[in-house]
């Protein structure tokens, strides 16, 4: 039987298949990462190991040597130690400047100290010791000296005036009343509570939350209605009414960073009541005197004999008008049915040492007197 030769179409298919296989093989080879040249790898390794950077030469140059001569102290006739002038210094040139300008080996930076020690004159060490001894003598002499004059003591604040030509009026009290003697009542006499300095920067701030339309304005304390510089801030102490017969102080109140502020003023400056629109009695009376003594006063802004249902302001470290104190004391002794009342144009006292300390309360709660939106509106 004769074998049949493949026709042309079969040969063409075979050739086409071979071409496709070769093309696929070339594409696969092209997609493979190139193999590193071993010779180039070896060259890179040698370059990394042996290519050390050239060291930078280090040069130490000494241009001067300071020779210090100590001046011994000269005793005085009285034998008291005297502080002598500091030692004088003399500048001399060094004969070895050229030698020290040579480049040092890069692998021996520690030789700098040795070269300096060998080059500097031996007298430098002795001179340095002389300077140290002279400084010790000066310090000992200064410590032994006694100042001839003591610093002047701080001046005492001016005493409060003992007499006054002012006259004041009482108005009938409406509600309230005391269950403790006034001087032992911690809501009236702020000295019972006491206060602690607050470690803050005293300044006005804008609070968050609602604001009353007619709170007492502390600028009215001054006749020119101003915002004075603030001094030391304090925190008033809390009070335990169940302690003893009349209560006892606790730690500082925590509801705000300050509850008492110092207002700087001029010595002997006239002081009045904080301003507000509401009257407590006809004729322009806006504040009731709830407590008064020679250096402090407590004002209520209702006709109640209490701080529980309205605004109250404590003024400390001042001189209350003696006639106002006398009128309050007589009203207190008479049963507190009538108490002194004040208008905005009346002077209730003066500053003593050039400042007044102020606390503000609303329904008995001590608030921060630095709140601009409450007590300093418009400033």
Describe the protein:
With 379 residues, the chain is α+β, with helices and mostly antiparallel strands. It contains eight helices and 18 strands. It has helices spanning 8-31, 38-50, 97-100, 111-119, 123-144, 190-193, 322-333, 372-375; strands at 58-59, 64-69, 88-93, 103-104, 169-172, 195-197, 230-240, 248-252, 260-264, 270-271, 287-293, 296-300, 311-316, 318-320, 338-342, 349-351, 355-362, 365-367. Strands 5, 6, 7, 8, 9, 11, 12, 13, 15, 17 and 18 form an eleven-stranded antiparallel beta sheet that branches. Strands 10-16-14 form a three-stranded antiparallel beta sheet. A hairpin with a 2-residue loop joins β17 (355-362) and β18. The radius of gyration is 46 Å and the shape is rod-shaped.
* Span between termini: 125 Å
Provide the succession of SSEs: HHEEEHEHHEHEEEEEEEEEHEEEEH
- The rounded Rg comes to 46 Å
**How much of the sequence is in beta strands?**
15-25%
Low-pLDDT runs of 5+ residues are 73-105, 114-121, 145-149, 151-155
Helix content: 10-25%
Give a quick account of the main beta sheet: strands, pairing sense, barrel closure: 11 strands, antiparallel
């Amino acid at each position: 039987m004769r074998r049949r030769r493949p026709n042309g179409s079969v040969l063409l298919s075979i050739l086409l298949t071979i071409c496709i296989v070769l093309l696929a093989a070339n594409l696969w080879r092209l997609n493979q990462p190139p193999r590193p040249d071993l010779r180039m790898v070896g060259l890179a390794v040698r370059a990394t190991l042996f290519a050390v950077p050239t060291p930078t030469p280090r040069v130490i140059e000494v241009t001067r040597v300071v020779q210090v001569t100590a001046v011994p102290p000269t005793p005085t006739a009285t034998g008291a130690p005297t502080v002598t002038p500091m030692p004088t210094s003399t500048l001399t040139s060094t004969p070895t400047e050229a030698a020290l300008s040579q480049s040092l080996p890069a692998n021996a930076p520690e030789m700098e100290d040795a070269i300096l020690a060998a080059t500097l004159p031996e007298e430098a060490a002795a001179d340095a010791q002389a300077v140290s001894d002279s400084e010790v003598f000066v310090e000992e002499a200064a410590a032994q000296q006694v100042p001839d004059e003591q610093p002047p003591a701080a001046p005492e604040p001016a005493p409060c005036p003992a007499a006054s030509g002012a006259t004041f009026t009482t108005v009938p009290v409406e509600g309230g009343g005391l269950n403790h003697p006034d001087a032992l009542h911690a809501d009236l006499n702020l000295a019972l509570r006491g206060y602690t300095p607050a470690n803050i920067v005293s300044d006005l701030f804008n609070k968050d939350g609602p604001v009353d339309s007619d709170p007492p304005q502390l600028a009215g304390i001054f006749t020119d209605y101003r915002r004075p510089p603030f001094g030391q801030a304090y925190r008033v102490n809390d009070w335990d009414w169940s302690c003893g017969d009349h209560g006892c102080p606790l730690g500082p109140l925590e509801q705000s960073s300050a509850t008492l502020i110092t207002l700087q003023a001029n010595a002997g400056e006239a002081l009045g009541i904080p301003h507000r629109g509401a009257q407590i009695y006809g004729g322009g009376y806006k504040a009731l005197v709830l407590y008064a003594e020679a250096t402090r006063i407590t004002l209520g802004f209702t006709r109640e004999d209490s701080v529980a249902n309205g605004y109250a302001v404590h003024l400390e470290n001042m001189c209350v008008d003696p006639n106002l104190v006398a009128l309050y004391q007589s009203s207190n002794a008479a049963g507190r049915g009538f108490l002194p009342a004040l208008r905005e144009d009346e002077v209730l006292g003066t500053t003593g040492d050039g400042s007044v300390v102020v606390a503000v309360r609303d329904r008995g709660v001590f608030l921060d007197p630095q709140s601009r939106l409450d007590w300093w509106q418009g400033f």
